[in-house]
Design a protein that fits this description.
alpha/beta; Metallo-beta-lactamase, Chain A; seven-stranded mixed β-sheet; six-stranded mixed β-sheet; 7 helices; elongated; Metallo-B-lactamas; MBL fold metallo-hydrolase; NDM-1-like; RibonucZ/Hydroxyglut_hydro
Length: 282
């Protein structure tokens, strides 16, 4: 897939806009990515990322397309993706999220624009001849994390719980490993051509399948190790997953990925309290 920069990005701030497919574009702000769709009736924007990033993007959209922003969609509740929403707060702009994401932003007094349009399972946003299908897949990362399918371009956008071309983030703080696996399986049943994540690389279904295989292999390896009576240090030493050694941050983050899955299995599944687990682990 060919990606090309439109115009001259502001290198000092490391911001860039890339054309993805059809009328869908990716916005890059450092290590973060969001997506927007330009239509004859206006523009749909996903995560603002930060006040500075949103300000730059809003100015660029005005210069390049000269069309109003109609929707701002929050991927989930985490501030490093949804802060800066107030930059887009103007008459006629709808802010959209899953109900759980909105509830968390309200309860924690988040300093960003609070969504005024929420949904439970699925929602479709129609704008001009295009649409965005929003879907909640259950627990995976944060609260109210959703997928966004932009049609007819066939571009799927998911933030944080699917990352292509890089290892999952450090010790998986805030991640539900079983939920990540289940949500990723659901995504693979969806109809799309290009995947854009909130970090790292774009890709296709084959890349998501490899990511899913990594998650399942990681989970199974840690689970089986605990059930065999091995402690965390032993698991970090023995589990190698060499098929994924080519991924950036493999050496640095594999031990942390193992730690994250271990913590989930101990804290949420209480594996060390089971009578079938060797007693030296309890």
């Amino acid at each position: 897939m060919l990606l090309f920069a439109i115009g001259k990005p502001a290198i000092a701030q490391n911001y860039q806009i890339d054309h993805i497919r059809g009328n869908v574009y990716r916005f890059t702000a450092g290590n973060y990515r969001s997506v927007f769709m330009e239509t004859d009736k206006g523009i749909v924007v996903s995560d603002p990322i930060s006040k500075q990033a949103a300000t730059w993007l809003k100015q660029e959209l005005a210069k390049r397309f000269n069309k109003p922003i109609r929707f701002v969609i929050y991927s989930h509740n985490h501030p490093d993706h949804v802060y800066g929403g107030e930059v887009f707060d103007e008459q006629g702009v709808e802010f959209v999220s899953h109900r759980l994401a909105r509830e968390d932003l309200v309860h924690t007094k988040a300093k960003t624009q609070i969504p005024n349009l929420v949904f439970e399972d699925e929602m479709v946003l129609y704008i001009g001849k295009s649409l965005v299908r929003l879907r909640y897949h259950g627990r995976n990362n944060g609260r109210g994390s959703i997928s966004m399918l932009f049609e007819p371009a066939g571009v799927l956008h998911v933030v944080d719980w699917i990352v292509l071309g890089r290892m999952p983030y450090k010790d998986l703080q805030g991640y539900d490993i079983q939920g990540m696996i289940a949500s990723t399986k659901e995504v693979l049943d969806m109809d799309f051509d290009v995947f854009v994540g909130g970090h790292a690389s774009t890709g296709q279904k084959k890349d998501i399948k490899r990511y899913l295989n990594y998650l399942e292999t990681l989970y199974n390896s840690v689970r089986d190790g605990i059930l065999a009576g091995k402690d965390l240090a032993t698991l970090q030493q023995e589990i190698r997953l060499d098929d994924y050694r080519d991924l950036p941050m493999y050496s640095e983050w594999l031990p942390l990925n193992i730690k994250g899955v271990y913590r989930t299995l101990v804290d949420e599944s209480y594996l060390l309290m089971r009578p079938d687990v060797p007693h030296e682990q309890q």
